[in-house]
Amino acid sequence: MNDQVVQLSYALDTFYFLVSGVLVMWMAAGFAMLEAGLVRAKNTTEILTKNVVLFAIASLVYLLFSYHLMYSSDAGGIFPNFGFLLGGENSVDDVMGSGGDIYYSARADFFFQVVFVATAMSIVSGAVAERMKLWSFLIFAVVMTGLIYPVSGYWTWGGGWLAEAGFSDYAGSGIVHLAGAAAALAGVIVLGPRKGKYGKNGAIYAIPGANLPLAALGTFILWMGWFGFNGGSELMVSNVDSANNVAQVLVNTNSAAAGGVIAALILAKIWFRKADLTMALNGAIAGLVAITADPLSPSGLSAAIIGMIGGLLVVAAIVLLDKLKLDDPVGAISAHGVAGIWGVLAVPLNNADASFGPQLLGIVAIFAWVFLASLVVWLIIKAIMGVRVTEEEEYEGVDIAECGMEAYPEFYVGKK
């Protein structure tokens, strides 16, 4: 292969990687809209603020040291090496002398990874909505994106001990989504449920979101962004095999989302006697999460079935968490955690190179590390500055208490 072809392939793969990263960044808008639609009007500004600022925090913390923590350590290890900033960029000589091992920009790799860590943190935002202090959340975001996520990321994508054990997770059902859900679960336990959510004798009271059109828009944005999330994880597109793989990944990603929607909607109709839109939306996300662990190996039909099972699981999990009085306003723990576990376990069903032992090991290790570390951090924050707004602030809405403005001021009735 001559130098010109090598450089053209390098440019094409770098461009593809960057565009995929942009699509994943667009998922931040999807999370923001989904969460803004599923909370009450009086809590909208605060949830939007969290989503914008957490992305900024993730970007800077990952730039300063977390990327180095996740990708600059020895293979097969448990404890990553601490360091600062990014390494050097690839030179022409580096690319030409690599024998094809270097085929995209090092900065493109960083950009793609930083939007992934922001996605993991976005999962936490919705689960703790409507009653958490803004600054407590943002402090946790620094620790989550700076330490907790990069450590388990090193174990897997960084070449650590889980990767050596044979754990397989193509685009992050466990590494990203289960990790985010585990951190969210720890936060929900420390925080407690919203006032009025649960009554005596096991009574559960629905607290509807203020803007279902926004929630539906957010889901479509996430669905679209997921093509970059999974498609970009192929890492290249400059040869026939990789191009075909990317096409298969996108077909499977779409099929799984569609399967999740249909299955969740049908189960909701049977269970609740209504076509519950929020369950259908979570079904789409659960299907997407489930196929993310391996969107390449299955056929389109198998991907749809994987998504359908994810859609069924998310409905059951949302109901179960409510019975356990674990209040998750947007269903994030169910859609990303339960469906993430299913996605990781489904990999060996279609991928002969994977086996259930390492997959189970990965699930337990990622969940245990992220949940326990997050629980400790949440408890420390609670002891120092508290994590929950006052009962009066929760009643009036955290928009006023935390941000001093309302998203829908014409609907707000203030004190006389």
Verbal overview:
This protein has helices at 3-38, 44-71, 92-96, 106-127, 134-156, 161-165, 173-191, 212-231, 240-272, 277-292, 300-323, 332-350, 356-385, 391-396, 398-403. The protein is an all-alpha fold. Helix 4 runs parallel beside helix 7.
- Give the beta-strand count: 0
Fraction of residues in helix: over 70%
Q: Are there runs of 5+ residues with pLDDT below 50, and where?
A: none
- Helical run tally: 15
Based on CA inertia axes, which overall geometry fits?
Answer: globular
Work out the oligomeric state of the chains in this entry: single chain
Question: Overall pLDDT, averaged?
Answer: 95
The share of residues in extended strands comes to under 5%
How far do the termini sit from each other? Answer: 76 Å
Radius of gyration: 21 Å
Structural class: mainly alpha
Biggest β-sheet description? none
H-E order: HHHHHHHHHHHHHHH
